[in-house]
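[recover] target loaded
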């Protein structure tokens, strides 16, 4: 069956639909509407246009032969703006832009009216968004399932050099892409007590009594496949009180109680990742996780039983993918529904649950593997807790059978132990598949972090290296390079990124190299203009744009990067005639509101920028920028313009990373450690087209286990490092000599119970500096650099999320692609 897009539409029809939407929504014409209103009308018109295939896609899900559907469960979906990517996948970007031009409207201005949906924070949410795009493009029936947060993590502003958090009110101008689905609302229960009742046949069943309940309302967002005719759904649950307003209490003068339940409900979907450094925050996070899991699983099981009678066939039609440990409650909730609602016996319910669930691990950091206090868990989710305890009892009985009565082994592997419920253990035991997200990450899971589980469940463990969608991260964000590629090798790369390998011979074509580098410079000029308009800072587009943008965490080592900047500045001050290409170091990252040291690193970066950027003696040869409020839209400006991609995490700490793939695809050269997907990037591009430095993961582990690491020895033996560290406390960066004392102590003495230089910044510094020197030499040979940049783009085929999703579909989900008949 032929791949097809939605039915053709003429420019006159587009104009008519936009004009009609303006009349209906705003009582305005094109001439009188604001840019925000034109955006709203255009979004409304596009959604109306694609609704035909949205309906057809879901009708296809329900055809007599039925299909298997993937439910991708995630606390985050960092979608980015809907409009531009939707238009590309519909094939309407050029016609819409032409229509806007004919109407005297700047299309780019209209696209800029859309605020980034505050539905995610970092790589976890962006990966989920790429996966949804790939599933719709290939034709795999799927829902993304999460929470419709009213506010994102936060809007970051830099004030007096420090991060300040403001509410991220992304829906303040409305939410034009969603459809409210009251007909699918469900009740979610918290608290209460578990009781048993005896039915008419003498069978005992568990019931929850005296509970508090919330109404979960789904909002559906379209996920349009590229030229596939398939429109899948992102289903986000919003919370409402069962009784929205207690009129009786209000009339009695008890105004606070009148809104009590409504306020409680609204808190559940109010904010992404509420602070959990206190019990109230922990409780809200756990409630959020159970809320969207229970709502999703209730709806999925209702849909199944409306069409089928045999529960044993459930895994033939349903696959839940747990995106990290946040959705691990799905294992226990599915058991609750099977046992308590549909009266399946335990063993049958467990077999079905295990076959229907699969778990993706996204982290090697033990502190990120969620654990909940038993006291909180049992109080908030009493029935779920009894189910988890029964799962744990049976699992521990098996451990005793396998290992004998070994308390240490059982304590280490149990789902419930030491007063905690371990969500990663629940996900592993309750799933048929456990996958890592890069080859090195999966090996570390099998050999170190989850070795005990790998020993008993080797068949469950597998690797699925992450990927990105080329539709957003090349076609949408870098139209100049997309056009050059298409003009030279055709446009099949949009569906098969391996086609970019055809660019490899063109790396030796001087004319192609010249055009490739002209595009890179044009993108750098665009970014320079944006930064000048936004921050009032001029940067040189002929300097090396060295970019590190990602979540701020110590293991990602933004500190190593800024230490190198300080060292380069110190060296330049001592040797004004030193030969190196001018550098523009660009940082952007959010630090969690309660992560003090991460916020202090941001303060350090901005302090260094304040000194370096205002020193006339270095003649602008180094610039340092911290761009506030990192988000998808900002990444779309940075990725096409970057020369250098900083991927410098401590080896063995980064699961995969996907920023490295985005920069590579757009012709940036990586400087990085052999960590995460960097290892596979190195394998694809070869040693000549990447700058690798630092210890390997085994070397990091060996040094850590030896207990012999002595940062003071490095400081004592290396004048340059010592000068960098001294700069933190000698008043160079701040009149407050103690401002960065914690960072100084963290490097040399340890701080807050952590060992000195926990992430081996000083150990890897010399190697990092040498790699940067080699990078500078390579950049000065522009012919060589152009070849390196082209080879990075040409070798990025492996890192498409289309490839990743096909592997999930074939090796974990056993799901088939569908097609829609061309009309």
């Amino acid at each position: 069956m032929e791949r097809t897009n939605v039915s053709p539409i003429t420019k006159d029809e587009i104009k008519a639909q936009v004009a009609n939407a303006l009349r209906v929504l705003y009582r305005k014409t094109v001439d009188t509407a604001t840019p925000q209103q034109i955006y709203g009308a255009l979004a409304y018109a596009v959604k109306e246009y694609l609704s035909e295939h949205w309906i057809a896609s879901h009708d296809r899900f329900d055809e007599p032969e039925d299909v298997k559907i993937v439910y991708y469960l995630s606390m985050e979906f960092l979608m980015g703006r809907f409009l531009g990517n939707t238009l590309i996948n519909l094939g309407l970007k050029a016609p819409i832009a032409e229509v806007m031009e004919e109407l005297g409207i700047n299309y780019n201005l209209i696209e800029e009216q859309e605020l980034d949906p505050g539905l995610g924070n970092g790589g976890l949410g962006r990966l989920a968004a790429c996966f949804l795009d790939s599933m719709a493009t290939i034709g795999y029936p799927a829902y993304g399932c999460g929470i419709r947060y009213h506010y994102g993590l936060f809007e970051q502003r830099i004030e007096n050099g420090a991060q300040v958090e403001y509410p991220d009110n992304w829906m303040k101008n409305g939410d034009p892409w969603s459809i409210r689905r009251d007909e699918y609302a469900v009740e979610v229960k918290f608290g209460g007590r578990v009781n048993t009742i005896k039915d008419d046949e003498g069978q005992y069943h568990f019931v929850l009594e005296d509970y508090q309940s919330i109404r979960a309302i789904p909002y559906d967002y379209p996920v349009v496949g590229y030229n596939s005719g398939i429109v899948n759904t992102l289903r986000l649950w919003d919370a409402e009180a069962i009784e929205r307003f207690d009129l009786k209490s209000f009339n009695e003068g008890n105004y606070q109680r009148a809104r009590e339940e409504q306020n409680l409900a609204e808190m559940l979907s109010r904010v992404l990742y509420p602070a959990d450094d206190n019990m109230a925050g922990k409780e809200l996070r756990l409630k959020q996780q159970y809320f969207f899991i229970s709502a999703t699983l209730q709806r999925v099981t209702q849909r199944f039983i409306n069409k089928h009678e045999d529960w044993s066939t459930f895994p033939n039609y349903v696959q839940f993918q747990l995106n990290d440990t946040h959705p691990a409650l799905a294992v226990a909730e599915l058991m609750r529904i099977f046992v308590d609602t549909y009266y399946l016996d335990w063993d049958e319910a467990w077999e079905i649950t295990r076959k229907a669930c699969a778990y993706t691990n996204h982290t090697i950091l033990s502190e990120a593997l969620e654990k909940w206090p038993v006291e909180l868990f049992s109080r908030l989710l009493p029935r779920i807790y009894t189910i988890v305890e029964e799962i744990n009892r049976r699992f521990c009985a098996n451990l005793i059978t396998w290992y004998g009565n070994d308390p240490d082994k059982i304590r280490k592997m149990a789902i419930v132990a030491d007063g905690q419920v371990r969500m990663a253990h629940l996900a592993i035991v309750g799933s048929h598949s456990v996958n890592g997200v890069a080859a090195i990450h999966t090996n570390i899971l099998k050999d170190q972090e989850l070795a005990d589980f790998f020993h008993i469940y080797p068949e469950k463990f597998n690797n699925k290296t992450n990927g990105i969608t080329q539709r957003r991260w090349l076609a949408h964000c870098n139209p100049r390079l997309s056009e050059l590629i298409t003009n030279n090798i055709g446009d099949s790369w949009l569906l098969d990124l391996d086609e970019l390998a055809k660019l490899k011979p063109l790396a030796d074509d001087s004319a192609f190299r010249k055009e490739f580098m002209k595009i890179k410079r044009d993108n750098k000029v665009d970014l320079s203009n944006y930064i000048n308009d936004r921050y009032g800072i001029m940067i040189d587009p002929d300097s090396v744009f060295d970019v590190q943008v990602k979540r701020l965490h110590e293991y990602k080592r933004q500190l190593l990067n800024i230490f190198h900047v300080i060292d380069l500045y110190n060296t330049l001050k001592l040797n004004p005639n030193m030969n190196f290409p001018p550098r523009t170091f660009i940082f952007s990252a959010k630090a969690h509101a309660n992560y003090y040291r991460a916020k202090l690193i941001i303060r350090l970066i901005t302090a260094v920028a304040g000194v370096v950027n205002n020193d006339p003696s270095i003649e602008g040869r180094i610039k340092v920028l911290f761009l506030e409020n990192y988000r998808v839209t900002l990444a779309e400006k940075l990725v096409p313009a970057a020369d250098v991609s900083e991927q410098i995490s401590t080896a063995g700490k980064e699961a995969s990373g996907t920023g490295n793939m985005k920069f590579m695809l757009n012709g940036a050269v990586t400087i990085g450690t052999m960590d995460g997907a960097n290892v596979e990037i190195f394998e694809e591009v070869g040693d000549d087209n990447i700058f690798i430095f630092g210890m390997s993961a085994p070397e990091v582990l060996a040094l850590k286990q030896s207990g012999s690491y002595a940062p003071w020895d490095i400081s004592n033996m290396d004048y340059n490092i010592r000068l960098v560290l001294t700069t933190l406390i000698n008043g160079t960066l701040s009149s407050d000599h103690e401002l960065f004392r914690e960072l100084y102590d963290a490097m040399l003495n340890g701080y807050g119970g952590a060992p000195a230089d926990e992430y081996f910044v000083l150990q890897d510094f010399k190697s990092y500096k040498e790699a940067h020197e080699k990078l500078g030499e390579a950049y000065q040979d522009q012919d060589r650099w152009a070849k390196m940049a082209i080879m990075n783009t040409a070798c990025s085929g492996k890192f498409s999320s289309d490839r990743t999703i096909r592997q999930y579909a074939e090796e974990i989900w056993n799901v088939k692609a569908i097609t829609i008949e061309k009309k």
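[recover] notes: The radius of gyration is 27 Å.
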